[in-house]
Amino acid sequence: MVGFIVAIAILMIIVLSLIGIYNGLIRLRNQVKNAWSQIDVQLKRRHDLIPNLVETAKGYMKHEQDTLKGITEARSKAMGAGSVGDKAKAESELNGAMSKFFLVVENYPDLKANSNFLAVQEELTSTENKIAFARQSYNDQVLFFNNKIQMFPSNVIAGMFNFKENEFFEIEDEAERAVPKVNFS
Amino acid sequence: MWELIRANKRKSLFLFFVMGICLLVLGFFIGGAYAGDDGGFIGLFVAFGIWILMSMISYFRGDSIILMMSRAKKVSYNVHPQLFNVVEEMKLAANLPVMPDIYIIPEEAPNAFAVGKKPEYCAIAVTAGLLERLNRDELQGVIAHEMSHILNRDVLFMTFSGVLLGSIVFLSHVFLRSMWFSGGGSRFRSKSSKGGGQLQLILIVVALIMAILAPLMARLLYLAISRKREYLADASAVRLTRYPEGLACALEKISLNNYEMKTANKATAALYIANPLKPKGMKLSNLTSTHPPMDERIRILRNISHGANFIDYQNAFTSIKGKQNIIPSSGIRERKKINIRTSTAASTQTKSTKKSTRDLGDLMRAVNKYMFLSCACGLKMKLPPNFKKDKISCPRCGRENHVPIAELAAMSGMIAIDEKNDSIQNNEQVKQDSFVYNRTGKGWETFSCRCGSPKQLSPAFNKASFVCNKCGRKIEIKGP
Fold first, then answer.
1. B419 to chain A, minimum CA–CA distance in Å?
2. Contact A38 B472 (CB under 8 A)
3. The CATH number of the domain where A117 resides is what?
4. Residue B474 to residue A119, Cβ atoms within 8 A
5. What stretch of H or E contains A111?
């Protein structure tokens, strides 16, 4: 009789801890999902802000039509991208176009003093930061989730219920660091 | 990250119970000193009551009491867009479930604090002086520090242990006073004749010693832990922003300030990012301050060299202060390399002193719901929130100005925060319905956009359209 009760108790403890691990994994997966949706929101927001920026800058930057066109094209490309990998690539292209634009802006003091432009610029800077921070937190969550999936004992549960490891969201360094060519001719 | 928070929670809970037991023991002995054996349990009961009551108050009303005490005003996006953006950035970095409420304290001394029992209900308050002095990166550092306090659940337990400390000090103070005035107390002697006088005497002596020592010990414990938490919050801020220099510069600017905060006091001092009360004696203050010395915090931050993870902060700390664990071991175990980012270029603008003083005044007025009206001559008139007339003559040029009260009120910060998000989501749609304004003459003209923000056209304005900086709507101008 005593042995039976002990067996039941041990069984209960095992079942409860399994449930705990499973719930923990679900919570982590949801956090990863949430972090990803945050990146998405911010990317979309940047896409929304870019036309404003171009509109404001157009009047001042008569001789920089190429730069402005570059941004607009990169934007529409990024908006069409589907998978995580594609998105990362298109977004880093857009990043390149934007940083080029902001370097060019240095030559237009009138534009830099325009209050509309300043407001859009603050929004854009902030959105860029938000994307970076959302990415940072997404990668943190993914690392944490992947660790949990690989480590014992949670890996057993993860295998049973088919939890998959997530991709990191890395922006290619090359594109991010790309310095626009300056032409002095 | 999560294990770190859990470790921190455990420690807080431990502190909370140690201090609570301290209070109970003190209560027991003081009760015993007054009325013998039975009194001990009455004292215990009373102390327990005080503990529960104070904890309840600080749990349910703590944050609003603190915000009220510091005269912080809740503000909306329009008052300071940059502050909102920076807070949202840090919210994303910290993966906080909701956006914290944002408060501005109309004070000149640069400082900030956070309150909130859970990340779901939290608020960050900064002073107007802080916003005026810091650039974007520095502000980000400060906000990240505050966010870390929320994330590490520091605020709740600092309030709790602050309240417990207060109760301990209060109880022993009352006891010592009553002993002093009763001069050893005839009360005590009358009891002792009934037997058990020996015990009574021992209880009185122990209670006396406790009453003197307990507040001191509790305070030292409290201070040591609150200082450790400041370091930990600095480390987490570096991890969140990946830019130690931002926080270091901010702390430097804050420590250079000469103003003392009028609304801070001993009870709330531990919550601020920097001690808001000016130290009187330098040496002693290092031991009894709720905050680690500023120059040390800055030196540690500047000493971080390899990356922005906790281990790097710990290394920098060790090289300056010697071997002492600031970061719980679960944080150290995480060896992933995190690169430090570079400064954002836009943050290196400097303003003239005169302009920054004026901006500071404007910000404080905006916080206090003043309305701003630009006259055609370029003068910016500041109208107090109870201004009701619909016309005002400009004090410089004497021109009669129409006061669009409803629109200005909407501008001056009564707009709900949610509306900002809506306007951004509906941006595409808003841009579709551009609207046309017909100019009546060649002079200055004032009108308002459909979103309510006032617009002014100068005589020199000759473009066909422009974009509203509030809602992004295109406004077309048709000349006469």
1. 15
2. no
3. 1.20.1440.20
4. no
5. helix A109-113
Q: Does some domain include residue A164?
A: yes
- Judge contact between B225 and B129, C-beta under 8 A: no
Across the range B243-271, mean pLDDT stands at 80
Q: Which two tokens stand for residue B272?
A: 């601020």
Average pLDDT, chain A: 80
Distance CA B139, CA B128 (A): 12
Do residues A123 and A47 make contact, with C-beta atoms less than 8 angstroms apart?
no
Cβ neighbour number for residue A177 with a 10 Å cutoff: 9
In a domain, A7, yes or no: no
CB B200 within 8 A of CB B184: no
pLDDT at B276 over 90: no
- State yes or no: is B230 an active-site residue: no
Residue A3 backbone phi and psi in degrees, to 5: -60, -40
Residue given tokens 């409860």 in the structure block: A16
The distance from CA B338 to its chain's CA centroid, rounded to whole angstroms, is 28
List the end-to-end C-alpha distance of chain A, in Å, as a whole number. Answer: 95
Question: Domain count of chain A?
Answer: 1
Strand partners, B105: B127
Q: What is the distance between the alpha carbons of residues B286 and B299, in angstroms, rounded to a whole number?
A: 16
Q: With pLDDT > 90 as the criterion, what percentage of chain B qualifies?
A: 5
B81·A52 Cβ contact <8 A:
no
- pLDDT, averaged across chain B: 75
> pLDDT for A34-90, tens place per residue?
888 888 888 888 888 888 888 888 777 777 788 888 888 888 888 887 776 777 788
**Buried b vs exposed e over B186-222: b needs ≥16 C-beta within 10 Å?**
eebeebbeeeeeeebeebbebbbebbeebbeebeebb
Select from B309, B426, B458, B469 the residue whose CB has the most chain A CBs within 10 Å, as the one to mutate to test that interface.
Answer: B469
A167 within domain boundaries: yes
pLDDT per residue as tens digits for the range B436-474: 777 777 666 777 777 767 777 776 677 777 777 667 777
Distance from CA of B446 to the nearest CA of A (A): 17
d(CA B328, CA B307): 18
Cis status of the peptide bond prior to B276, with omega within 30 of 0: no
Contact at 8 Å (CB) between B353 and B337?
no
- β-bridge mates for residue B391, sequence order: B402
Distance between CA atoms of B410 and B399, rounded to whole angstroms? 24
Residue B167 per-residue DSSP state? H
Residues of B in contact with A28 (CB under 8 A): none
Query: Using DSSP, how many helices (H) and how many strands (E) does chain A show?
Result: 7, 0
Instruction: Kindly state the tokens that stand for B270.
Output: 């531990």
Domain of residue A130 covers 35-177
What is the amino acid identity at position B55?
S
- In-domain check, residue A39: yes
All structural domains of chain B with their residue ranges: 2-289, 353-478
Taking the Cβ of residue B431 and every Cβ of chain A, the question of whether any pair is shorter than 8 Å is answered with yes
Find, among B339, B332, B318, the residue nearest to B3 by Cα. B332
Q: What is the pLDDT of residue A182?
A: 47
- In three-state secondary structure terms, B437 is strand
| Pick among B1, B82, B87, B92 to test the A interface (most A CBs inside 10 A) | B92
Token pair in block for residue A76 = 């529409």
As a whole number of angstroms, the longest Cα–Cα distance in chain B is: 106
Single out the residue of A109, A114, A8 nearest to residue A53, CA to CA.
A114
Mind listing the pLDDT tens digit for each residue in B376-424?
Answer: 777 777 777 777 777 778 877 877 777 776 666 555 544 433 344 444 4
Q: Does B254 touch chain A (CB under 8 A)?
A: no
Report the C-alpha gap between A125 and B137 in whole angstroms.
12
